[in-house]
Amino acid sequence: MDLLRHLRYFRAVAEEGHFGRAAERLRIAQPSLSQRIRRLERELGVRLFDRGSQGTALTPAGRLVLTEADQVLAAADRLAAAVARIGSGAAGTLRAAVPPHLGPAAVAALITGYRERSPGGELELRELTTTAQARELAAGTLDAGVVRHPCPAAGLAFGPVLHQPLGALLAATDPLAAAGARLTAADLNGRALVLTPRADDPALHDEVLTACARHGCTPAAVHEAPGGDFTRALVLSGAPAGAGGAVALLPRTSAGPGTVWRPLAGEPIGWRTSAAWPADGHGPAVARFAAAAHEAMRDHAGMRPARAAAVHPRPASEYPL
Question: Which of 47, 90, 179, 277 has the smallest number of Cβ neighbours within 10 A?
C-alpha cells in the first residue's frame, strides 16, 4: 500500500467531512476513494470514520490518525523538497579543489560566487595539485576542481581554458627589479629558476621550461618550491647557482617584503587553467561551481581566454648534444 497517498486521501475526507466532495477535490471516483479508505482502515485495524447520510465524522481513532498524518505528510513534503534541492544543485555538499598559487582574491571570489549560485549548498574546498585532483576526480572522492593544463587524465571534462601570464619574482636588490622595468624571457637567461615541483604537475613543469627555452632563457639551475613562503625565501637567498641570483616564475602576486614582481614583455610564458570534473558527473552543482570558478579566475586572477596554441619547432637547446 502507498501509505503516503492513502494518508493524503484520508486527510481530504476528514477536512471535507464528505466522501463525494473529497473525491471531487482529489479528482478520483468516489467508489475508488471509499475503497482506499477501507483499505487504510484494514491496514491500521481501526475504523476511521462514522459514515452517515449527512456525511462522515472522525472516530476517536480517526482524530488520532489525523494528527499523526499531518506530521508524517509534512515530513514527507520536507524530504521531497530537500531531495529536489540536492538534485538541482541548490543544496548538498560539493567536494572541490583548487591548485596552489591561484591567489586569495580568486579563491575568495570562487567561494562567494558558488554560495550565491547555491544558497543552500555547501562547498568543501581544498588546495590540491593538478595531479592529485586528477587522481581524486577519477576515484570519486572529488566532484570538481580547477586544474592547470596540460592535464593528461582520461575521463575528465573541462570548462573554458583561461590563460594566466607568468612574470618574474625578484629580490628587491636585483638589478632587474628596477622600477618600471619590463623584462623579456631572455633577460632571465643563466639565472636559477624557482618553479613548482615537477612531481606535482609534470606536464606543466616541462611546458614552462620548454617555453623558457623557446624564448631564449636557459636556466643555470631549477629549484622546486611547493609554497609561496619557500619560493620567496629561495629568491631572497639568491639560491646559489646562476649569476645574479634566483628568479621565480609566478603569476602576478603580492610580492612580499624584500621582493618585487615584474611582467614579461609579450607574455611568453603562462599557465592555462580551467574547471574540471568527471565526464559522467556534470550535474547542476558542478555546473554552478564551474561558472563560479571561471568568473573568479577571469575577474580576480588576471586570466583571459586562452589563445589557440601555436605550433613551434623545439629549440635546439632542448636537445642534448
Answer: 179
Q: Which tens digit of pLDDT belongs to each residue from 8-28?
A: 888 998 888 888 888 899 889
Domain 94-321 falls in which CATH fold?
D-Maltodextrin-Binding Protein; domain 2 (3.40.190)
The pLDDT, as a whole number, for residue 239 is 55
Ranges of CATH 3.40.190.290 domains, the chain: 94-321
Whose CA is closest to 176, among 195, 257, 185? 185
Summarize pLDDT for 156-190 with one digit per residue, the tens.
999 999 999 999 999 988 888 876 677 999 999 99
Percent of residues in the chain assigned helix, strand, coil, to nearest 5: 45, 25, 35
Q: What CA–CA distances, in Å, run from 21 to 24, 39, 108?
A: 5, 20, 57
List the Cα angle 125/129/130 in 5-degree steps: 100
Spell 294-303 as b/e; 16+ CB within 10 A means b. Answer: bebbbebbbb
Residue 153: in which H helix or E strand, if any?
none
Give the whole-angstrom CA distance, residue 126 versus residue 108. Answer: 12
pLDDT at residue 306 tops 90:
no
CA distance 242 to 103: 29
Q: What is the pTM of this model?
A: 0.67
C-alpha cell, 40: 487504510
Start-end of CATH 1.10.10.10 domains in the chain? 3-87
Residue 136 CA to residue 281 CA, distance in Å, equals: 13
